[in-house]
Design goal:
2 copies of one chain form a homodimer.
Chain A (H helix, E strand, L loop, with lengths): L7 H8 L3 H9 L6 H14 L5 H8 L4 E7 L8 H15 L4 E7 L5 H10 L5 E4 L7 H8 L4 E4 L10 E5 L1 H14 L4 E7 L4 H17 L5 E7 L4 H13 L6 E4 L2 H13 L9 E3 L5 H5 L6 E3 L2 H16 L8 E4 L2 E3 L11
Parallel strand pairs in A: 1-2, 1-3, 3-4, 4-5, 5-11, 6-7, 6-8, 8-9
Antiparallel strand pairs in A: 10-12
Chain A binds a DNA duplex (30 and 30 nucleotides) through α2 and α4.
Keywords (chains A, B): DNA-binding, Transcription, Transcription regulation
Pfam families (chains A, B): LacI, Peripla_BP_3
GO molecular function (chains A, B): DNA-binding transcription factor activity; transcription cis-regulatory region binding
DNA sequence: ACACCATGCGCAAACGTTTGCATAACTGTG
DNA sequence: CACAGTTATGCAAACGTTTGCGCATGGTGT
């Protein structure tokens, strides 16, 4: 309630001019004498006038806000991803004078309904979507309403038609496989999640593609999937993998969190990394550097990606380019200690 | 521009009633016949009416937004702290129907000027402050304008007078010291930062208090400080500490990031942890669990704290309690492998 | 001298709500 | 049946801005 309340009216009155003139003078574009413009700017500065966002939004339809919908996944970020992502976006948006707002999805509700609500109440000029699923209803909804947005990740069907930036998990997994294959590994495993996230499919595709390309019938692949945030079954699945009679020697994982669990379970079972098994992660979270023997993984440069996404969205907001932009980012392989030659036996 | 645009007027017209009546029916408080209320709610639902935030904000002065000012500290979160903090706030605010927005501080500008601007343009109903410094100008500015806010951390002078939640670093450091002292350590070091953050002072005070209380003249304390985000001089300072003739056997650090650097430098110098030196961190970041030999540290429950801060702010917004709330959270000591008995010599 | 145009400014409407006040309709009482 | 009291509804102002339009003013061309 402590409305500071210096309005355009105050500025105008202090100069004996009309509100309209003051508004135009500050806008800077309209036909206004240089003289008055100078005076108005000066007066505004002296009085401490700051334009009211709500009023401006009401008439212009532009809020200066970009929204990000966050699932409330129990406590905090299971995903270290989000921290970098949010600051990257914030940095990118601030370059264009916009702010980022987060809205948490209440436990009961669906992400889609939250997005629908957001679009309708005019809270945001544009939206950012993270964690796109294969048939993400949010993407389809926003495209249909032609509401400006940018997504991290692709849906299956349409690769264009909207602004997206994605990590090229396919080629990354090919690279990882080739590395391990070159090290003599023939018995692989993939630790993945059960949810239908597009990146899961992409990486699996890459892996299968690489395997097919070797045309080597001795190559085998086991898969262990568990719900993304279910630590318990995750650990169980990995144990199953590591204690199987035909234990794999090379383990690819969908993201570092899974790889770290693999390292832990391996340690518990007395398996040495990388002598007995090689493990490769994805994302290069901070812990990857410190968990022994150092996790070989892919750096996705998520901060910069998010910043670029902000730019994509702002461009599509300003209406300059009506064509959607798309960008595929190639992650960088970070070699550490968790991979090595296949054990001989 | 794709303004969905179902307004109150649409709802009213579809029922042949006035806008005012429709508004009141949806507000739910006013004297309205149960009959019309039912009809209006139903019509609104059918049409897909969602109240326009900007218009509502303009007249009511309430935006439904709470702001958080983020320093853009190079790339991403140097601070794992912020990730948890942001989601905690988001969760807490969503319970009350508010959203959190982040505004990054542009490189040139000061945090204070951003805050001033925020307060004036009516973007937010309230503000959240993080990383409070000893004489934080933001706190003083907001108190003086009696703008609703809640801060994580205290300024030096006033401990009441505004809503704050703080981690009790003083008693935590006493606890840490006592633990190490009981293990026979007599030669201590504190690795800290150069910035005048209040929590730095609090923890140092705690440490000095604990030392004084032993009344043991053989206890010594060395201090190594470096700029918070300057990795290089940080490493140098720590090296200096570890290679000194009278190398300390127990090292307390202001936060886990510093502790991890200590562990790294110790490893590089061939020092064993905890046999040669004990190291204790603060914050219990995810990496703490995985960095060998496991970092003994304090868990601050920052997610829950942030969520509670959201509650404090919302209460002060609703004007229920005009008195500021304050809360001191005691961090929980997490025992891992990085501390042990003092080496004999 | 006239018409004409460019320039600089003001008036007032509009954006979609909320809300104080007036008014209409209804209820019960004498 | 009149009156007061209650209840439900409508009218219109207000929030602070932007912007289309019109109106002066003064300069330029013929």
């Amino acid at each position: 309630m402590p409305d500071s309340g210096k309005t355009l009216k105050d500025v105008a009155e202090s100069l004996g001019i009309s509100i309209a003139t003051a508004s135009r003078a500050l806008a800077g574009q309209e036909r206004i004498s240089l003289e008055t413009r100078r005076k108005v700017v000066q007066a505004a500065d002296r009085i401490g006038y700051v334009p009211n966002r709500a009023a401006r939004a009401l008439v212009s339809g532009q809020t200066g806000f970009v929204g990000l919908v966050l699932p409330t996944r129990g406590h905090g970020f299971e995903d270290p991803f989000l921290g970098e992502f949010v600051t990257g976006l914030g940095a990118g948006l601030s370059e264009h004078g916009s702010d980022l707002f987060l809205t948490a999805v209440p436990p009961g509700e669906s992400e889609l309904s939250v997005v629908e609500h957001l679009v309708r109440d005019g809270r945001a000029d544009g939206l950012v979507l993270a964690r796109v699923t294969e048939e993400d209803p949010r993407v389809n909804f926003l495209m249909q309403r032609s509401f400006p947005f940018v997504a991290h990740g692709r849906i299956l069907k349409t690769e264009a038609g909207y602004n997206w930036l994605d990590t090229d998990g396919r080629t990354a997994f090919i690279e990882a496989f080739d590395l391990l294959y070159a090290h003599g590994h023939r018995h692989f495993a993939l630790v993945t999640i059960s949810e239908p996230m597009t990146f899961r499919r992409q990486r699996l595709d890459g892996l299968n593609e690489a395997i097919a390309r070797t045309d080597d019938p001795t190559v085998r692949l086991a898969v262990a999937a568990s719900p993304r945030f279910d630590r318990e079954t995750r650990a169980k699945e990995i144990q199953r993998l590591l204690t199987a009679a035909d234990r794999p020697t090379a383990i690819l994982t969908l993201f570092d969190g899974l790889a770290i669990t693999v390292l832990q379970e391996a340690a518990r079972l007395g398996l040495r990394v990388p002598e007995d098994i090689s493990v490769i992660g994805f994302d290069n979270i901070p812990t990857a550097e410190h968990v022994p023997p150092g996790l070989t993984t892919f750096d996705t440069g998520i901060h910069d990606s998010a910043q670029e996404m902000a730019g994509m969205l702002m461009r599509s907001l300003s209406g300059h380019s009506s064509k959607p932009e798309t960008r595929l980012v190639h992650p960088r392989l970070v070699l550490r200690g968790s991979h090595g030659p296949a054990p001989k036996n």
